[in-house]
Amino acid sequence: MTETPDVVEGAALAGPDGWLRCPWALSTEDYVSYHDEEWGRPVHGDDALYERLSLEAFQSGLSWITILRRRTGFRAAFAGFRIEKVAAFTDEDRERLLADPGIIRNRAKIDATTANARVLAEWAPGELDRLIWSYAPEPGTYPVPKTLADVPPVTAESTALSKALKKRGLRFVGPTTAYALMQACGLVNDHLETCVSRRAR
User: Fold this and answer.
1) Does pTM surpass 0.85?
2) 107-134: per-residue pLDDT in tens?
3) Which of 47, 52, 84, 114 is the least buried, fewest Cβ under 10 Å from its Cβ?
4) Is 142 a catalytic residue?
């Protein structure tokens, strides 16, 4: 168990168990488990990455906790984010989604999620996984963040990934969304230097 250091703005904070964590992880109980068990851990598989990409797009303009607390609803509404199933959605499915209180009922984001599935359904198995992970920077490319101020909103790699995804026909994949995906899916490790999850990763 780590001793609590002098408080520095944006630095890791001790939770109820005494372990230091990224400060955003302590704002709600939902965040603690997401931070400890998921965020920053490598994610592979086309469907799994499609889900993360879709949820990051829905998060645009909102807080992540809003999406996290609706994730079960999103998975039910979008057939578990199985690309082939979402690609086959009809106009009736679109109307169902627009009326579903379990998700964010944003027409543009719903349309982008289904359109992206149709694009990805034409790709070879593993192609999305290989494309996304090809933009993971080499370890040590960036300094280990000590505070939240050290964590960038975008990087050269996320900008390049965004351009590559857009070129292939995907929507709602700007550089900020692409970087959030890279953080969440373990392409980069933005757990703060003294965060317990950085050492456990």
Assistant:
1) yes
2) 999 999 999 999 999 999 999 999 999 9
3) 84
4) no
